[in-house]
């Protein structure tokens, strides 16, 4: 190398580390784009466990990454969703770890009313697909709830209208859970209120309501947006307490209206749905009581008349007692002689019995029994000897059957019978039997196949014959012979008067239909 060669171009340029260069680019970009507002469509949305939100903002040609830190996410009125068109406000920065630039979003809003309505329709379709709006999920409201829970703002006119209407119709106990009815705090506070009412214990110190009313006055779509949040809809669907939604005026509709058990057009109407009119209920009860008293009185009158009618057909009590009284008198007259005769008969019987129990008579009976016992004792020993000899002979006969020679003959006979029977279980005999059974099975299967095919052919011929009959009897065969069918306003026309009054006439031929008159298009 020549000591006097010129140095290579750029040899004296400063050297940067990767981190230094990345920091310099970061300072340039952040200094040039302090705060920007970007309009675009939300692409991929990621929500890791850290609580931050990572997303893409895109248009038809470019994509920029975005991040919303956890603290900002909790303050947003509208949470970003994929496919949503938004206006994001934030600052442009770089992320040196991946050599890319991104926007740190500080606020995000839908890009106009159309975006809000599109998001609402998308969310409504997704929740409806889950079955949250199904009519069979809705429960009947209690007729007269003891305690009513109201979820609304405590400072607005809504709660006063509800309390006033309840006081006029039927005063009930009311528990109020104060919430924000618009803004970023609306949805989480309404969710906590619904879940909190459901966690109360029935009959506790703070009793659980029998009915819930979620109410708010009218407003714009942005004001009512808290009641369109998915968390509010799911909390209302999971409520074990029947729920009435009364959000906005009659023309306002939010997603909580579709999932609630009953929708009221106004908060006042919600109070009317919650309880009946006390005076009307009292009047109805009074009318029912009067009907019941009248029915009871008429029933008693009819039964009294029937009892009197039946009593007239019965004999008098004295007449019924005449016969028994006479029988009692006759029985009383016969009682004393019968008692005397009974005593005398028993006295005579006792005398006869006592005569038979004299000592001499008893001794004679005792001697006769002793003589009979001696006779039986003399017969007992010979009978015992005969019985013992018979048992010995029986045992000897049974023992002869177990003599070795007898047993040997029995074993030989049984061995011969066993050999005769085993002849039938030789392999060649079993193989012949199995072959015969296979042949029989094959013949049976062939017969079954032939019978099934014949039955199938017979059914197919019947179906073809019925199809031909149906085609012959149908009106299209008639059309093929030159006839036509005239229809007016979708119905078959059978008269000229019906054809004149029809606004649309159509003639059906065998090959197609032809519209011949449309009065709305005809010249006047």
Task: Describe this structure as you would to a colleague.
Its EC number is 3.1.11.6. It comes from Sulfitobacter indolifex HEL-45. Keywords: Cytoplasm, Exonuclease, Hydrolase, Nuclease. It is a single chain. By secondary structure, the protein is α/β, with parallel strands linked by helices. 54% of the residues lie in helices and 17% in strands. The chain contains 15 helices and 14 strands. The chain has helices at 18-32, 70-73, 113-129, 157-169, 186-199, 230-238, 255-259, 267-274, 278-313, 317-356, 359-400, 404-422, 427-473, 475-480, 496-501, and strands spanning 36-46, 53-58, 63-68, 85-95, 100-110, 147-152, 173-178, 211-216, 243-247, 262-263, 485-488, 491-492, 504-508, 513-518. A five-stranded mixed barrel has the order 1-2-3-5-4. A five-stranded parallel β-sheet has the order 7-6-8-9-10, sandwiched between helices. Helix 5 (186-199) packs parallel to helix 6. The longest helix has 47 residues, at 427-473. The two termini are 107 Å apart.
Please report the total strand number as a whole number: 14
Q: What low-confidence regions span 5 or more consecutive residues with pLDDT below 50?
A: none
Question: Which geometry do the CA atoms define?
Answer: extended
Q: For the record, give the distance between the C-alpha atoms at the N and C termini, rounded to a whole number.
A: 107 Å
String of helices and strands: HEEEHEEHEHEHEHEHEHHHHHHHEEHEE
- Given helix and strand content, the structural type is alpha/beta
Major beta sheet summary = 5 strands, mixed, barrel
Largest sheet: spatial strand order: 1-2-3-5-4
Strand content: 15-25%
Q: What's the gyration radius in Å?
A: 55 Å
pLDDT average, as an integer? Answer: 83
Fraction of residues in helix: 40-55%
Output the number of helix runs.
Answer: 15
